Amino acid sequence: MSQQATMSRWQRFRQSDLIYYFLKDKVAMVCFVLFMLYVVLATLAPWLAPHNPYDPSTYDIMDAEMPPSWLEGGDANFLLGTDNQGRDILSTILYGSRVSLMIGLCAVALQLAFGVVIGLVAGYVGGRVDNLLMRMADIQLSFSTMMVAIIVSAIFQATLGGEFYSQYAILMLVLIIGISEWPQYARTVRASVLSEKKKEYVEAARVMGFKAPRIMFRHILPNCLSPILVISTVQVANAIMSEAALSFLGLGMPVDKPSLGSLISIGFNYIFSGSWWITAFPGICLVVLVLVINLLGDWLRDLFNPKIYKD
């Protein structure tokens, strides 16, 4: 019986509008394949990377700034060349993509947790609680995301020390980016809750004696998932770009644990000396990743807009 139920759920999923419109949109399919390729390569980086950029014994400073293998002076062991420390660019990109995706996804999960809870409470409870929470969101939104991230990063480094910050850089960046972006979710969820809480199914739940937390999370939240899903795809790209910007400014990942942003920052100092590949290849990788995620986000936004997708 359970197998039949599972099969029926799978069949309903295959026949859903999501799959129907996805298979009709070639751009969405290409972007999804590229994104999954990024995820697979980043996940398997320890096994796919020719060298381990985190292990100093695997690279030699004498190999520093070696050009890609197809250029004069290149080495077949370093397909995309080496950086200023002699690390293989291809390996650092694989490991760096892993760090950037991990920070982006975890930061968005933190934003989601904060923003959804605050938005649900503000929209459902209303009154002074709503005013207080939304004024907090307005104050934070009055500053640019990067400014908030820089301030929080500087406070963490000054309070905890540079060594501690470098040791737990990924966790610190997840907290910094997550704290600076939660108002986007809170305001969107609040707007959805304000329209949903007046509907009959919410009134029926109240009459049945359900408590507010159950009504908010079990009944209202599932009907607010469409805008949350769209925002999440855009916010993943924004979180990756924020991490890259912070690393470029020296407030992100340490030099010995490269991300895409720190790789671009390292190569920027050598681009005028002719070692363009140190910045170019990580930069291209970052641009393509962000573009793919943004295009997927645009497709989801159009999918959930009934005025655009019609049979």
TrEMBL record:
The cross-references to InterPro entries, in alphabetical order and at most eight, read: BP-dependent_transpt_permease, MetI-like, MetI-like_sf, OppC_N
Localization annotation: Cell membrane
Any one GO CC term of this protein is: plasma membrane
* Signal peptide as annotated in the record: none
Gene3D superfamilies found in the cross-reference section: MetI-like (1.10.3720.10)
Q: Does Transmembrane helix appear among the keywords?
A: yes
CDD domains (UniProt xref): TM_PBP2
Q: Which UniProt keywords apply?
A: Cell membrane, Membrane, Transmembrane, Transmembrane helix, Transport
Has UniProt tagged this entry with the keyword Kinase? no
The GO biological-process annotations, alphabetized, read as:
transmembrane transport
| Transmembrane regions | 27-49, 101-127, 139-158, 164-182, 220-241, 276-297
Report domain ABC transmembrane type-1 positions: 97-297
What family is this protein classified in? Belongs to the binding-protein-dependent transport system permease family.
Q: Please state what the protein is called.
A: Binding-protein-dependent transport systems inner membrane component
Q: Which organism is it from?
A: Tolumonas auensis (strain DSM 9187 / NBRC 110442 / TA 4)
Output the lineage of the source organism.
Bacteria, Pseudomonadati, Pseudomonadota, Gammaproteobacteria, Aeromonadales
